[in-house]
Specification:
single chain; about 150 residues; mainly alpha; Serine Threonine Protein Phosphatase 5, Tetratricopeptide repeat; 2 domains; 7 helices
Length: about 150
């Protein structure tokens, strides 16, 4: 021991321990840095970015801001690749909002879109009633054979 202390050096056991701890620390910082840059550089998935549009539309609808909700739902449909069921649900919602704003002409456009897209739409009976209500209100003849595919 005196020879190491007199030479100003450390014992080989301490040197090995310091080297191992230094390597572990460098590796830990490397992993942290890689995860940090991956989070910053990798943009969120497009679906994640557009999914909020539907949520904002829902909130606006709940607050009674129907026109703003319609705009959010339309942006959602334009920017998001959705399955038929979701597309039909959102289109029907847009149609109902137009109907609540006493705009049955525009509501019918969205109701018919929901009808054509939503082959397995769970609200098909309600959709048919909404179509009938708007066609009656506009004094249009009832559409022949409007059924959900």
């Amino acid at each position: 021991m005196e020879s190491n202390a007199s030479n100003g050096g450390l014992s080989s056991k301490i040197k090995v321990s310091i080297v191992i701890l230094t390597l572990i620390t460098v590796c830990a910082f490397g992993v942290f840095f890689v995860q940090l840059t991956d989070t910053i550089i990798t943009p969120p998935k497009k679906d994640d970015r557009t999914q909020h549009l539907r949520a904002v539309g829902d909130r606006l609808k709940e607050t009674g801001l129907k026109e703003q909700a319609i705009n959010q739902y339309i942006k959602f449909l334009d920017k998001t690749k959705t399955d038929e069921k979701t597309h039909a649900e959102v289109a029907h919602t847009v149609g109902k909002l137009y109907m609540q704003l006493s705009n049955c002409r525009e509501a019918l456009v969205w109701f018919f879109e929901a009808e054509m897209i939503g082959s397995a739409y769970s609200q098909s009976n309600k959709l048919k009633q909404d179509i009938d209500t708007c066609t009656t209100q506009l004094n249009f003849p009832k559409p022949q054979g409007h059924t959900i595919r």
